[in-house]
Structure formats: C-alpha cells, structure tokens
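Let's do one together. I've listed all components of the complex below, 522 residues spread over two lines.
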Amino acid sequence: MPGKNINLEAKSEWMKGNGPESDIVISSRVRLARNISNIPFPLLATNRHAAEALDRVKSVLDSDDLNEISRFRLIELDGLPELTKRVLVEKHLISPALVNESRRGAVVLNENESISIMINEEDHLRIQILFPGLQVKEAWDLASQVDDIFEARLDFAFDERRGYLTSCPTNVGTGMRASVMMHLPALVLTQQINRILSAISQLGLVVRGLYGEGSEATGNLFQISNQITLGKSEEDIVDNLYGVVRQIIGHERAARQKLLTESRIRIHDRVNRSLGILSHAVVIDSKEAAQRLSDVRLGHELGLIQGVDAQTLIELVVMTQPGFLQYFAGENLSPEERDLRRAELIRSRLKA
Amino acid sequence: MQCQECGKRPATLHFTKIVNGDKTEFHLCDACAKEKGEIIPGTSNGFSIHNLISGLLDFDLNHPGQIHGAESRQLQCNECGMTYAQFSKMGRFGCSSCYDYFSPRLDALLRRIHGNTAHVGKIPLRTGGVLHTRKQLEQLRAKLAQAVQNEEFEKAAFLRDEIRKLEKQA
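Okay, and this is what the predicted structure of the assembly comes out as:
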C-alpha cells in the first residue's frame, strides 16, 4: 500500500537549522520543471495519460538508477488522508496544487526528505531539492544529477531554441526556480525591509512569504527567488541569487548590530517578553506564534536568550501549522482548539 | 510594503505590468486581492499567475503591426487541439507541440515575460548530444573571437585547435 508508512513526524533535512549562514538563511531550494515528450501536459492529460506519466516515472524508480543518490519511496496522493497531504504541504515537500488539482498526483521522496519529485503537478515532473542554510549551488548540482538520471530513461520535451518546454510560459527554458528562505527580523524592526524588497524586485527576483506564492511573510520569513527562466543559464540564475542574498545578509547583520548597540535594552526586553509568552500562553494563534518565534530566534542569534536551539524554533514554525496540529491530534480541530493545542505544543517543546 | 488598496496589511501580491513602456504596478494583500475577485495561486479561488499571463496575451490584440487578434486566435495545436484563444484564457500550454503551433506569437510573449526568447542553459545529456556539441562550438567561437580581439594569440591558437577537434567529432 503506497504511502502507508510515511513518517510525518520525522524532520526534513531543511528543518535542521544548520548549513552556511544559517543565522539568517533558513533554507535553499531548487526546482526543475520537466515534461515527458509525447504525453500532453497534466492540464490536458486524460486519466490514461496521467497514469502513463506516472508509470514512466515508476520505471525509472524500478531501474534502481536513483539508488546511487539515495533511497526513494513513491507516495501516491489518491486515497491518502487529507491531513497527511496537508502535512506534506506544510513541510514544503509538495505544493497545494498537487493536492487540489492533480490527476494521479504522486511524490517521490528520499530518506531525509531533501529531494522531493512531484509527479503530475502542473508539469509531469517537478524535481525539488531543499537544503538547510545557504546552499543554492549545492541544491542545483543535486537537482541536475537527479534530472540526468531521469533523462537517461525518459525523453524530455526539449526544444533547441526554447529549452525545456513547460506548461506555463513563465517556466520555459531552464524550468528552474531557485529560492532562498531568509529570516530578516532586524530589517523589519529597523523599517528597512520595504526599501530592500522593492530593490530586489527590480533585479528580476521575486519575494514571497513562507508558503510560496500568495502567502504572507509571517514570522519575518521571506522567500526570494528568480523570476526569469529563459535566456539565462542555471549557473547565472544561481549566481545572481547569491549576489543579492549575500547583500541582504550583510544588511540584516548590520541592522542586528545596530539594534544591539542603539536599542539593546528594548530589544532584550522584546525577545524575552516573547519567550515569556510562548513559555506560558494557554492559547495562541498562528500569526502571533510566528511573530513570537521570530523574536525568540532573533534573541537566540543575538546571544540575548540562552537555552533554546535554532532547530527547535524552525520545527515549531512548521509544527504549529494547522495541518500538523490536526495530524498530531488525529482529528480535525476548530480554530479555537488549534490555538489551544498550538500553545500547549510550544510550551512543552520550549521546556524540553 | 503595504497593500495599495487597504493600506493596512502588507502586500503579498506584487505584479508589474509594462505595456508599450507604460508601467503599472500592483501591490495587494491577500484579503484585497480576494475582494477584487483575484485570488492568488495556492488558495482555492480563481486568480492565478495564469490569469496574469492571459492579461498579457490580451494586450497583444491591441498592438498594431502584429498579427491581428482574430487571426492569431485561430492558431490551433494539431497535437492536443488547444487553440490560441484557449491558451490566452488559461495561460498554460496543453502539450509541448503547442510551442510549435503558436510560435508566430511566442517571441513577443516570451520577451515580455523573460526579456529573452532563446534558451542558453542546460541541454539534456542523452537526447541533446548533437546540440551539446553545437552549443559548445558556439561558445568556443565566441571565446576565440574575443581572444583575437584582445590579441591573446596563444589562447586563440588553443581555442582554434579545440574547435577543430569538436568539429571532427560532429
């Protein structure tokens, strides 16, 4: 039975809280969109087409070629409990579109969940690599390796002039979206963030919230990614992103120093208040939780708070999402019940 | 950045539209985007990047000097049956052959989205064998021209030999 033994409580690699520049960069992601030639894109695919795309991917899995990279398992979405799907979304392993719109949708995951390959989402394959810290280059290298293994057995839709052909014209060419999740509390507190974000958007990059397109930047988490996929090489896209991210890191570090030197007492008070609330609150909504967790994380990075670790804080951001809370509870919960459970979970994890 | 509609919540939808040099920027929060009947991908209702693209496609129709709207709307992919009109409504291609059948309109569209019309990145290892060599040759020739211009003749000679080697293989 596919998907029966998914261990949803296991931490994904990206939630480990380590990696280069991990005081500011939470995670790095590279996604490649690929389609199998001679099968219509999922948008127009019939059940038979979708099944064929899935079978072709299965044939690559069965060939064991991927074993040189890691061990993988295939999870088909049909028949998977709603809450399980939601947890996979909250862990960033699959997209909401795969849950809501796909026909014969599936995901291939490796053991530490750093590689996830969505099948029959908007494109036949979406190869995604998710690493902790600033590792976009490493993520691209691994994505390319995985891509090569599939390409050895599948004919991908590729055109000499247009590159990799994708369902949406915004992905054609490299089919690559490279993104970095950054925690930028000091830039927000010092009110420099808007200036920086609007500068970013003029450099061909896009800024989004924690859960991608359309999500709000709660908890001072910002996801920065490339917009252009055609006419630039993958290496250029990665370099461009690095260049901008390094600058933002520099600005965030400077802003943190400024907070420490100019308003040390205020910031010390703020982060400790937030720690106090998280340690003792009986109910807390997700927005407040995200903000308080961001404060505590900042306090930890500035050396103002001892005894919490970065990994716990990232895990809490994910595990206090509605799907996770309900998954742990084993049932659907009303928003009020969720706020109660969220506060309970945070209290117990901070004590541990 | 605050939402330009309500001025209260942070804007999460950012979209810049440039038509004939006229730039219009949208910065909306989730709630206001929803109110406008424009909902963002990942949420349940209609608005998506594809609607934005179809917006771009529709603007084409007003452009003089390009293929007339009515004609281009008759473009149809013989492989999957999608018409250009359907494509401009959904903002997504039906199959890889759509790129061939709609090609008269694609340069303008891709330039608007990416500022470019041609791929310069990765080429598939197995099926792209010939292409690989060709792209490599192009790159080497460009380097050679540069080296000659800079009077780096030793480097130029090396590059020339590399090019000859590759040409023999091809």
